[in-house]
Design brief:
about 40% helix; single chain; about 25% strand; alpha/beta; about 200 residues
Length: about 200
């Protein structure tokens, strides 16, 4: 899905005019996306403090060490996203990102989650499955790449739960305080980029 390239382009747009110092990834998984981002962005964004948030700690010590060697300071937070929202303060993180994460929530949960993110970020970017015929065809074909039955099922389910048009923009709170971009990227990705006007 070329996620890293898509994210780089969006974040360069979102951070034009300031150098971010803090980055939070929601649903960070094993931390591999953050490591790849650090390898690409460390020259532009030195000395970043990065937080990898997930319900499970799947990040290997070697991954954290590699991120640290690149000049970024990583930490892992093992917590449910809604428990994190309840417990954290309202200070703004420069950038909050999510990859293939937002589509797991119901509309009610999503509205609550987006409200919490809006209160705590200057730039928010998520890359999600695009809900389209092309994406659905692609999901049904991943078995040709050797994917097993669980992955094939998850791919199709993810497309059905994905986004299109301005669905995330319509749920974003106080849109007058933000610059919102919601668009398709690549063949299968739906992106949402929110830039706080105070940034």
């Amino acid at each position: 899905m070329a996620t890293l390239v898509i994210m780089q382009r969006a974040l360069n747009r979102g951070t034009a005019g300031f150098v971010p110092r803090t980055l939070l990834e929601l649903g960070a998984g094993d931390g591999s996306l953050m490591l790849r981002m650090a390898r690409k962005q460390t020259d532009c964004w030195p000395a970043m403090e990065v937080t990898l948030l997930d319900r499970l700690n799947l990040v290997e010590p070697q991954t954290l060490e590699e991120i640290h060697k690149l000049g970024w300071t990583p930490r892992v937070v093992t917590l449910d996203i809604f428990h994190w929202l309840e417990g954290c303060n309202n200070s703004r993180t420069d950038i909050v990102i999510a990859n293939l994460f937002m589509h797991h929530f119901s509309s009610k949960e999503l509205a609550r989650l987006l409200a919490g993110i809006a209160a705590r970020s200057q730039v928010f970017l998520c890359c999600e499955p695009r809900r389209s015929i092309l994406s659905l065809v692609g999901a049904h074909c991943i078995g040709l790449l050797g994917a097993g039955p669980v992955t094939r099922h998850d791919a199709v389910s993810s497309v059905h739960a994905g986004f299109r048009a301005q669905e995330l923009s319509e749920l974003w709170p106080n849109p007058q305080n933000w610059v919102l971009h919601e668009y398709s990227a690549g063949l299968f990705t739906h992106c949402f980029l929110a830039i706080w006007k105070g940034a």
